[in-house]
Amino acid sequence: MKRIRIGIICFGNVGIGFVKALNEKNEFYQKEHGIEFLVTAVVSLDKGCAYNPEGIPLSDLLEAESLLDIPNAEHPKWNAITLIHNAETDVIVEVSYTNIKTGEPGVLHLREAILSGKHVVTTNKGPIALQYKALSTLARENNVKIGIEGTVMSGTPALRLGTEVLHSAGITAVQGIFNGTTNFILSEMENGSTYEEALALAQQFGYAEADPTADVEGYDTAAKVSILAQLLFDEFIEPLNIDREGITDITPADIRAAKVENSRWKLIGSVRKIDNKVIASVKPAMIPLSNPLSNVAGVTNAMQYETDLLGPVFLIGAGAGRIETGFAVLEDLISIFTKSA
Ligand code: HSE
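Above: inputs. Below: predicted complex with L-homoserine.
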C-alpha cells in the first residue's frame, strides 16, 4: 500500500469538504488504487495547527471546533510556510481564500511548496488565473505536479475533459455557467425570492466567496474564463481585463420579461478563438429554453465545448459546494499518485 502524506493549508469550506470527501472514500481508494491518503498536517489562520506524521484521524479533524483540540497530534506554531518546510508531506493541498487581483497568499504558498519538492493541488482560482504559466513551469523544473481541477466547476471534470480529451478534437470555443452562486440567485429569484434572500442562502450553503462581490459582479466567472483561455488556447488574459458584467442590475421585472419570451437569464462566461484571436467575456444573457444551458438551475454549472471533430459537447454538474470542491482535490491526488512513480 502506497502511503501519501498530505498537508492542508487553510481549513475553511473547501478544506473541510476535502476531509469529508476523503473520509467517505478512503477505503475505496485503498482497494481500488492501493493508495492510503493520510492527512499529516493542517494549518488554519483562525483554528491553529495540528500535526501527526503518522496521520491525523479524519474523524478528529471533522469533529474538532479548533485544530488545537485534536488529541493525538502536536500543535506547533506553524504558519503555511513553516508547515511546508517542517511537516512530513508528499503533497500540499492549498485551499486558502482566493484573491483574483494579486493571487496572494496562494501564489506564495504554491511556489514555496513546489520549490520544496512537493506536489501541489489547489482549488484557488486567483493564483491559477494570474500565475498558471509560471507555476506550472516551476513545477516541471522541480519535477512535481500541479493539480487545478477544482478551480473551474468544482469536482465536475471541466478542465480534464477539455485538456485531456477534447483538445484533440480541436476546441474552437467554450461557453457556460461557471458560477454557482449567481445561478442559484437567478433561479431563486425566478421562484419568487428577493435578491438579498437568495444571496443569504447561497452564503449559508457555502457556495459564495468570502466576499460575494466576486460572484455577483462576475469576477469569479472572469477568473474561470481566464483559466480556460490559458489551458485551452494558451492565451493569458488577466481576469480584470475581461469584458465583464455581473447580475446585480437584473431586476425581478427583467426575470418576468425573460419568462414571457420563453427564456431565462444566465451569467455566461465565454472564450473563443476567431482568426487566431482569443476573445473572452462575462455577461448576463437571456438564453432561450430550447438551449440546454437555460435549464441548468440552482448551484449547478454547465459548459458547452465547441469542437471541430465532435461538434458541441455539453457538461453539466456541480459548480460549487464543500464536498463537491473537496472531490476535485481527490481527483487531482488520484491522478498525480496513480500516474507518478
Ligand atoms: N463562489 C464560487 C461559485 C465557488 O459560486 O461558483 C466555486 O468556484
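The mean pLDDT is 96.
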